[in-house]
């Protein structure tokens, strides 16, 4: 039995053959901007993973999706990062469908049936700014929404079929409220520019998506009740829960792949190997506890607090275990292959995803003292 057997079995159950197809390619090929990972994912039916079975999807629960993402992250961290954004967007549509006009269900069936990929245009990548503050401006013109701005980085920028983008639109009382626009990739005014300059995670296609006077029918907009004070409504809580689970799982998978190499290597003291497995396993169990609670129907703010705690604990576990794993693999492994150092660098990128621990520290403490959780 290897360290990630259970995760790979879960991946095979939902996307038969994908693990073997990814394993057939060298890591540096999978992680390149033109790598085959996204194509293989689409061919294996990956876009349908969290689409409900009633909408022709695979119907994975949060716990199952977390295990799938760990398996993918162990093979290709770039693919895990990119597809986490897709699944997060799909899960948002599922949550919105309970309150929407019915268009969401049609989109979900198209995603599952046609293998459509969703990119996420939610705000991130701008130091010091709340991720609930959209990067794209929205105005109203003749009953339609007009979008201008850009999202960078935006994973799946070159393979996306649809872009989900956060917006602020006036509510019935004139107060600006967050909304989600769904933009087909071929819409006039949508373009992609090079942006990602780091070879680490280059396979995620995280370039800049530009929207210049993009006209969107109001029916392609899902409105929420969230105002600019960053207090979350149930729809946003569900979205953030999915995001934290999926993004953390992929990076835990990348760290697990590195530790897996150490476990298989001769000459490393058992105490060192066991310590790495124990620390990474504890972080995984914490994440799975949150995913299990979601699977059982919990979606409240307190669970999101737990998800953030699990995510930040995973960051610490990844930092320690990857450093120890590289030491254990030794200088010859460093000299003869770049895989180990790549996996360590990729896994530690979890710290760069929003919301950052530093910005959330005060909000987390306040929430644990009874205040509403605010995402900053």
Automatic annotation (TrEMBL):
<dbReference type="GO" id="GO:0016491">
    <property type="term" value="F:oxidoreductase activity"/>
</dbReference>
<dbReference type="InterPro" id="IPR036250">
    <property type="entry name" value="AcylCo_DH-like_C"/>
</dbReference>
<dbReference type="InterPro" id="IPR046373">
    <property type="entry name" value="Acyl-CoA_Oxase/DH_mid-dom_sf"/>
</dbReference>
<protein>
    <submittedName>
        <fullName>Acyl-CoA dehydrogenase family protein</fullName>
        <ecNumber>1.-.-.-</ecNumber>
    </submittedName>
</protein>
<keyword id="KW-0560">Oxidoreductase</keyword>
<keyword id="KW-0274">FAD</keyword>
<dbReference type="InterPro" id="IPR037069">
    <property type="entry name" value="AcylCoA_DH/ox_N_sf"/>
</dbReference>
<dbReference type="InterPro" id="IPR009100">
    <property type="entry name" value="AcylCoA_DH/oxidase_NM_dom_sf"/>
</dbReference>
<keyword id="KW-0285">Flavoprotein</keyword>
